[in-house]
Design a protein that fits this description.
Tachylectin-2, Chain A; mainly beta; 5-stranded antiparallel beta sheet
C-alpha cells in the first residue's frame, strides 16, 4: 500500500513541474530495455466475442488497494448491434506491474446511447488520479467523455448539463478520440486525436489537439500541437498521443502511433513547449519505437512502457530507459 503514494499513474504527476526552457541543451531519447512480458490476452469470455476481435487502445493504473488495473478497447466484436462500432472496454487486474498474465475481469464498460454515446463506440480509456479521485477520459466515437471513481475500479460517468456524457469534440466527421491528461503547473492538458478537415494542408490527416482545464471538467478551445507524419498518411497517422515530462532535461515528450500490427510504429517528439511538437514536420523527432498505443509508467524510480502486441492478441510491458540524443 505504501507504493500507492509514490506511484505515478500513467505519468500524470510528471507534468506538475511548470514549463521551462531547456537551458542545458540536454535531449534524451527513450529506448526499450530488455524483453517484453505479456500482461493481457485476447479474451473471448464475453457475450460479444468473435474470431476477428482485437484488444487495442488501453490504460494502465494502480487502484486504491494496490492492484494494477488494465482496461482495453476490444474491437471487431458484436457490441453495438447492427451498424454499431463493435467496441467496449474489458478489464484485467494484476498484483504487480511486473507479473505476467493478469487476471481477466470481464466487461468493464459499454457505450450508453441514452447518454449520447455511439452504440459500440467506446475508445481509448485513460486514467489519472487527482487528490482522492480517479478520472477516466475516453472517446465515444464523436466526443471526449469523463468518468470518476474513488477506488480506481468502479467508475461512474460524469453527465453534462445537456444530459449527455460528451464534454467536447472537433465537429462532425472529425472523430475526436484517444484522450490523455497531463498536469502542467496548475492546469490540466488533455491531448487527443482527430481527423483534421479544417486545414487544407492536412489532406484529412491525423492531428493531435490539446485543450486546457483547471478542474478537469471545463475545457478551453482546442489547439493543434502536432500534425502529420513522415511515416504515415491519412487520418490515422497520429494515433494515441501520450505526453510525459522529464525533469532532468526539462522537456516534454509526445509519443504518437502511425501503425498497428506486425509493422507497428510510434514516433517520439521532444519539446520544451507542452503545446508544440511540430506542424507538418518531424523537426522535434528524437526516436521511433516498434510499439503501438504506448503508455509510459513510472514506478519506484524506474520507467516502463506498455504497448499492444504486434499480433494484436494482447498487451505487453517492458522496461524503458532514457539515453542522450
Amino acid at each position: 500500500m505504501k507504493n500507492i503514494s509514490i506511484i505515478l499513474i500513467s505519468v500524470f504527476v510528471l507534468g506538475i513541474v511548470a514549463q521551462t526552457s531547456n537551458a542545458s541543451g540536454l535531449i534524451l531519447a527513450p529506448q526499450i530495455e530488455g524483453g517484453w512480458w505479456q500482461v493481457a490476452g485476447n479474451p473471448r469470455d464475453h457475450k460479444y466475442a468473435t474470431e476477428r476481435q482485437e484488444p487495442v487502445d488501453f490504460a494502465v493504473w494502480q487502484a486504491v488497494d494496490g492492484t494494477w488495473q488494465l482496461w482495453s478497447c476490444i474491437r471487431g466484436t458484436t457490441a453495438g448491434g447492427k451498424n454499431g462500432k463493435t467496441r467496449f472496454f474489458y478489464r484485467w487486474e494484476g498484483q504487480n506491474l511486473t507479473d505476467t498474465d493478469w487476471k481477466p475481469m470481464g466487461i468493464a464498460m459499454e457505450a450508453d446511447p441514452s447518454l449520447g454515446e455511439t452504440p459500440g463506440g467506446l475508445q481509448a480509456p485513460h486514467v489519472v488520479k487527482a487528490g482522492n479521485t480517479y478520472h477516466m477520459f475516453y472517446g465515444d466515437w464523436v466526443n471526449i467523455c469523463h468518468a470518476t471513481s474513488k477506488d480506481g475500479k468502479n467508475f461512474t460517468r460524469v453527465i453534462q448539463a445537456n444530459g449527455k456524457t460528451g464534454m467536447f469534440n472537433e465537429g462532425d466527421g472529425e472523430h475526436a478520440r484517444d484522450p490523455m491528461v497531463l498536469k502542467v503547473g496548475n492546469r490540466y492538458h488533455c491531448y487527443y486525436t482527430a481527423h483534421s478537415m479544417r486545414s487544407p494542408a492536412t489532406n484529412h490527416r491525423g492531428v493531435n489537439y490539446c485543450r486546457i482545464s483547471t478542474d478537469l471538467q471545463n475545457w478551453g478551445s482546442s489547439k493543434i500541437v502536432a500534425e502529420g507524419s513522415v511515416y504515415g498518411k491519412g487520418p490515422y497517422c497520429a494515433e494515441c498521443p501520450h505526453v510525459i515530462y522529464l525533469p532532468e532535461p526539462k522537456r516534454y515528450y509526445l509519443f504518437n502511433t502511425q501503425r498497428y500490427g506486425r509493422r507497428q510504429h510510434a514516433t517520439v517528439f521532444s519539446s520544451s513547449d507542452a503545446l508544440h511538437y511540430g506542424i507538418n514536420d518531424n523537426r522535434f523527432e528524437v526516436a521511433t519505437l516498434p510499439v503501438a498505443a504506448p503508455e509510459i509508467i513510472l514506478l519506484d524510480g524506474r520507467y516502463y512502457i506498455a504497448s499492444l502486441m504486434p499480433s494484436l492478441e494482447g498487451i505487453q510491458i517492458a522496461k524503458l530507459k532514457w539515453v542522450k540524443k
